[in-house]
Every structure is written in C-alpha cells, then in structure tokens.
Amino acid sequence: MEPISDHLEHGLQIIFIGFNPSIKSGETGHHYANPRNNFYRILHQSGLTPRLYEAKEDQDLLKLGYGFTNIVARPTVGIDDITKEEYAEGREILKQKLEKYRPEVACFVGKGVYTQYTKRTKVNWGFQPEPFVAGMHEFVAPSSSGLVRMPMKQIIEIYRELSLFLHDDT
Questions:
Q1: N or C, fewer C-beta in 10 Å, the chain?
Q2: Could you tell me the residue ranges of all domains in the chain?
Q3: Burial class of residue 65 (count of CB atoms within 10 Å of its CB; 0-12, 13-18, 19+)
C-alpha cells in the first residue's frame, strides 16, 4: 500500500505528527480516516477548529495553518508492524521536514511518536521544556486512536492547552 501524502507548507502554525497511517487512511488517502479515530472531534472540541471536519477534508486544514505528516509513511494495521529500520529512517526524514517547514509547533500525536523521534524516555503531556529541534515548540498530545483508554475529556483538555497557546492574543 502506498504512503499517503503529507500536507505541509511553509508558515504553518502546527504540524501534527502521527506514528503512521492506518490501513483506512491508506485506502482513502486521508489522514486519521479510521472512523474510530477521534482526531477531528478532538480538534473541534478543544477549540483548534471552528467546526467538525471530516478526514476527507484533511487538506482544508492547511487553510487554518495545520499540516500533517507521520514518522513512518507506510500504512499498517498497527504500530507493532513498524520496523526499527523504518523508525530510524523516519526519524531522519521527519527532522528534515521540521527543519525545512519550521512550523510554530510540532504536535506529536502520542507519547510513543515523540519518544521514537527523540529517543527520550521521560516525556510529559504538553509543551516540552527542551525542544529536539532548536527554536521550535514541541507539544506532546495523547493519541487520538479509539483504542486509547484515557477519558476523552482529559484528552481534549490537553489539546485545549495547544489551542489556548495559539489563540493567546496577550
């Protein structure tokens, strides 16, 4: 199955970074396309988007200043199907993308994505005190997968921190 296209451009507020596309995303060509994935609901309920978007509208989020990529491009059933070699290669490619596009915030959708990227073992939710890429804000948010056991209200509150940061006019 072919990788799905990144949605990246210069001047983005946020690049959302996932592990890799699901099989459903690979089939449709859209990020976070699995109907059990809560990504777009979380963005809307946290105040990051003015309305509820659907996966088929993922490219429209560029207009809001939001882009998409993954640490590994190959669609899989789950993260257990990703090899160490794919992570090593993806880590380098992702770093190059972030250095090229320089978003205001690199938002890692899942602690595991961030730990794979930085090789750091201790990670808290929210903004990271020592960014891996100098001069860029790095934010770690819970995975939006329907398999996550964290209460939705708690997930939304973590994403709301990102929304408040972006919309702080003081």
A1: C
A2: 14-166
A3: middle
